[in-house]
Amino acid sequence: MKEEQQSLPKWILIVSGLFALLEIGVSFSICFSPESVLETVDFSAKGVDYLAYMWASRQFALGFIFAFATFKRSAPMLTIAYVFFLVMFIGDLLIGISQKENSLIISAVVMCIISSALIFAINRKK
């Protein structure tokens, strides 16, 4: 292994693995039981299932990227994954603000903080 790959702390790998499992789990939930995730959406409307599957594929892709980067113990790959995570949750924050949905705002702020902290921790020079 490269020195960079060996230097990642175990807790970062554990957290990244948990995020990978979480994202893949959300993806399957959206695919197989979208009503449980999207309670306020009318799935009888035309095209809604298409949007749900698009969202599920985004979640699956992110979970796969986290899993692969964690397995490879790659700091650059994990950094990119967490930057994507950060951008995604900034978007969620803006949506929460525009929809005046406090739960989405709070969760997006928390996840932005977590993503930023992990980007910092991965790239911190010893």
Secondary structure: elements and pairs:
Elements: H1 3-6, H2 10-32, H3 34-37, H4 48-72, H5 75-99, H6 102-123
Helix pairs in contact: 2-4, 4-5, 5-6
Unreliable parts? none
How many discrete domains? 1
Q: Structural class, judged by helices and strands?
A: mainly alpha
User: For the report, how would you describe the main beta sheet?
Assistant: none
Write down the overall geometry.
globular
* Assembly type: single chain
Describe it for me?
The protein has 126 residues and is mainly α. The protein has one domain (8-123). It has helices spanning 3-6, 10-32, 34-37, 48-72, 75-99, 102-123. The protein is globular and about 50 Å long. The mean pLDDT is 89.
Keywords:
single chain; mainly alpha; globular; 126 residues
Q: What would a concise description of this structure say?
A:
With 126 residues, this protein is mainly α. It has helices at 3-6, 10-32, 34-37, 48-72, 75-99, 102-123.
